[in-house]
Amino acid sequence: MKALRNFMNKVEPSFRPGGKWAKLESVYDGMETFLFTPNTTSRSGSHIHDGNDLKRTMITVVVALIPALLFGMYNIGYQHYLAIGNSHEGWFTMFMYGLFAMLPVIIVSYGVGLGIEFIGAQIHHKEIQEGFLVTGILIPLIVPINTPLWMTALATAFAVIFAKEIFGGTGMNIFNVALITRAFLFFSYPSHMSGDEPFVKVDSILGMGGGTVVDSFTGATPLGQVATSVGEPAMTNILGEPISCLDAFIGLIPGSPGETSMIAILIGAVILLITGIASWRIMCSVFVGGLAMGALVYALPSHVYPASMLDPVTQLCLGGFAFGAVFMATDPVTGARTKVGQYIYGLLIGVFAILIRVYNSGYPEGMMLAILLMNAFAPLIDHCVVSSNIKRRARRVATKE
Amino acid sequence: MAIVRLKKGFDIHLLGDISDNGIVAASRPQTVAVIPDDFHGIIPRMEKKEGEHVDAGEPLYHDKNDEAIKVVAPVSGTVKEVRRGERRHIDAIVIAPDGGDGIVTHDLKRPARDVLLDSGLWVMMRQRPYDVVPSPSVRPRDVFVTAFDSAPLAPDLDIVLGDKRQYIARGVEVLGSLTDGKVRIGVREGQTIDAPSAVVTTFVGPHPAGNVGVQAANTVPVNKGETVWTLDIVTLARIGELFTTGRVSHDTVVAITGEMVQEPRYVKTVMGADLETVLKNETTNLAMSRIICGNVLTGVKVEPDQWLCAPYRHITVIPENNKPDEFMGWASLRPSRFSIYRTFTTWLGSLNKPVSFDSRIKGGERAIVRTGEYDAMLPMDIYGEFLIKAIISGDIDKMEQLGIYEIAPEDFALAEFADTSKLELQRIVREGLDKLRAEMS
Q: How far apart are CA B265 and CA A363, in angstroms?
């Protein structure tokens, strides 16, 4: 560590104003605070501070995402070998295939996002902040694996600039940056975001996999199948074999890399709840809202809306509902900040997600839109909650007079 | 007697607590100083010049805006120096004690308010709103007194009181005559106060239960347009003593605590005594220490050649940062890295075991990201985070609506400790209060 510290000290002058690399000052600062927790001391106010900081908070969220990430990689390989009729391939090969499929997306996501953040920080002469640590890993998890890299790059750039930097950077954004990336892709390139193609990778990577796709192949996600089905919805895997709620719970179904496995998501949820980073109020109320709305539509089934025939538990296991509830809705920056507000915010996300999913067949996945919609309403919800405190205070004066 | 149970807050257990309640007398101070910054809200106009003689209790300066508000010398001696800083701001008024027993005796037949103002005890009280020295022209709605200090390593006020306890009842009588409401005393569980005319409330819970503002907010909160006075039980006893004997006692008992103190204990000395005398042979390694006048949350950083400052009852000495930059400290799994949050592993052991704390901030300043952190540390019916945002954005209407009149910077001290975003909350609150006061006057 000492050598590294000495090296950082040695190169520091060239990054300061007047130095050769002065334009990269914020990059240096970012690296330095990443490597070494600064030993600056308090000048005024409290003389002691808690050990927790935002870096730790963000990195804990990344840790919570790792189960979903690893499972997503495995599932990409699994779906691939299933599609080419070679489902007896070893799990390690499947995982490696998925790893190689996802690495470019992760690199593009971090490269583009951090690049813009670094430039932004340099322009404003601010320290690089760690907000993109989480966003950068969320994007590969919610973007379909077959999305061309240039689209992912463009969408990431759009989201970071227009959903985050123009609002003032980390902690200031109104909409969840990762979801804006997804929404940008969804509305700009709809043909690449739904149907048979986006969710299962069928070509070979670095000589791994590849082959002829089996005849019965269909790459649509269960929710996609339901949305386009006529009569009783039937869900199948990519070979046309029927799947159940349990399959969706385990996660070996087509879908965006991070969203398929309830198990992996629940491990992440446990990490977030134990460490206290995510609000259990939001997380639980999203599920409650989804269950309630799911039960309501299930009680009123209609052949016009095939998704209304799914039972509520299956609704929650399918698509991005669980992933959104655990990792997206709980984003403290874009969510409601008051305790009462968090219940309302979460409930409405759950309700709207199912509502959009069932009654708008154009969008088989409702979670993204539900969260973005509630992101917009979160400040209003908080405003109402805080207003009740203000009114209580005002009444105290009024009763005196 | 009413009992209020507070759940929010946190007791930080630091190394260096006092184990023996005996009081040791410090030797006579070399110099004694009055620090004008201790009495926020008044602008000093000197009454004594350098070289002039003062008796104990004789005014050194008064407020520029109200001549009646006096700050007095704690000892008899010669004004040695009026130390000035930037823009002629008075940093300290240094007195060389002559060892004489010249002390001002007050005529108790005069109105109580005038005696208080002249005695110099007036400036040891605070008023809400604004957390400043009370304005003599406003009659307070109530007077709030806290009888205990819940801050980390704080002294037991019963010990600081000592035999001055007998004057509490008289103090309550005097302050009761200056308010239309009541004198309300907040005590901790098991503490008794012998003052029949006071309203005594017991507060149970972690720090900041001992903060007088927290006690007020949980009994009879301060509303817009109202003024209350706040003080601690020691000042109340001093007021009682003044109105019994006619003299102010400037003796004080100071708790010397903290990890860098050899043997934490109580020391008897004089208000404003020089730290060289008070801390003689008390600390282990002065060069590697940070001396804090007061507690670690709200105290003032002082140098060894400076003086004891208000409220003259607590000194904490903690290690100054002496560690090199921590390699990837945010990834640390070391149990010794203390955090009240479960992102670190402290909670797996015990959060109540005394820990070592140095003065590092341990992170960079960020926008407010995590929710509910301030609220969990602030046992008041106030949305702390929204109030802080209103102050930062300078929105005066919002500040008023969200309850800025009820708070003082010290109420946000614990939130500042716990803040993941490392914002200087006490400074923000102080600036907000000052701004509001300037707008309203």
A: 71
Which chain A residues are within 8 Å of B322, Cβ to Cβ? none
Residue with tokens 């995510």: A278
Contact assessment for residue B14 and residue B351, using Cβ atoms and an 8 Å cutoff? no
Of A35, A54, A394, the CB nearest to B421: A54
Are A333 and A58 in contact by the 8 Å Cβ rule? The answer is no
Mutate to test the interface with A, among B37, B359, B381, B421 (most CBs of A within 10 A): B359
B386 vs A contacts (CB less than 8 Å): 337, 382, 386
Rg (CA), chain B: 21
Q: Mark yes or no for CB contact A51/B362 under 8 Å.
A: yes
Q: How far apart are CA A333 and CA A379, in angstroms?
A: 10
Q: Tell me the residues of chain B between 94 and 153 that have a Cβ less than 8 Å away from chain A.
A: 152
> Shortest CA distance to A393 belongs to which of B415, B406, B140?
B406
Site of tokens 């908080």: A382
A247, exposed or middle or buried, with CB in 10 Å at 0-12, 13-18, 19+?
Answer: middle
CA dihedral (A270, A273, A278, A284) in degrees, to 10, reads 80
**Dist CA A158 CA A160 (whole Å):** 6
Nearest residue in chain A measured CA to CA from B357: A48
| Amino acid at position A276, single letter | G
Instruction: Show pLDDT as tens, one digit a residue, over chain B (441 residues).
Output: 789 999 999 999 999 999 888 899 888 999 999 999 999 999 999 999 999 999 999 999 999 999 999 999 999 999 999 999 888 899 999 999 998 888 999 999 999 999 999 999 999 999 999 999 999 999 999 999 999 999 999 999 999 998 999 999 999 999 999 999 999 999 999 998 888 889 999 999 999 999 999 999 999 999 988 999 999 999 999 999 999 999 999 999 999 999 999 999 999 999 999 999 998 888 888 888 899 999 999 999 999 999 999 899 999 999 987 666 667 766 666 666 788 888 888 888 777 888 888 888 888 888 888 888 999 999 999 999 999 999 999 999 999 999 999 999 999 999 999 999 999 999 999 999 999 999 887
Which of the residues A44, A53, A396 would you substitute to probe the B interface, choosing the one with the greatest number of B C-beta atoms within 10 Å?
A53
d(CA A251, CA A260): 5
Task: Report the residue of A36, A37, A134, A177 to disrupt the B interface, i.e. the one with the largest count of B CBs within 10 Å.
Answer: A37
Distance CA B262, CA B315 (A): 13
- CA B44 – CA B42 distance, rounded (Å): 6
Q: Do B366 and A51 touch (CB under 8 A)?
A: no
* Rounded Cα–Cα distance for residues A33 and A41 (Å): 15
CA-CA distance, B66 to B333, in Å (whole number)? Answer: 56
Cβ within 8 Å, pair B321-A39: yes
- Chain A contact for B345 (CB, 8 A cutoff): no
The answer for residues whose C-beta is within 8 angstroms of residue B180's C-beta and 6 or more apart is B139, B140, B141
ipTM: 0.90
Report which of B372, B371, B361 is spatially closest to residue B422, judged by C-alpha positions.
B361
Residue burial B324-354, b: 16+ Cβ < 10 Å; e: rest:
ebbeebbebeeeebbbbbbbbebbeeeeeee
Residues of B in contact with A55 (CB under 8 A): 330, 363-364
The B residues from 395 to 434 touching A (CB cutoff 8 Å) are 401-403, 413, 416-422, 424-427
| Binary contact (A400, B323; C-beta < 8 A) | no
**Spatial separation of the C-alpha atoms in residues A230 and A233, rounded to whole Å:** 7
Q: What does the domain layout of chain B look like in residue ranges?
A: 2-17+26-245, 361-440
Q: Are B132 and B40 in contact (CB under 8 A)?
A: yes
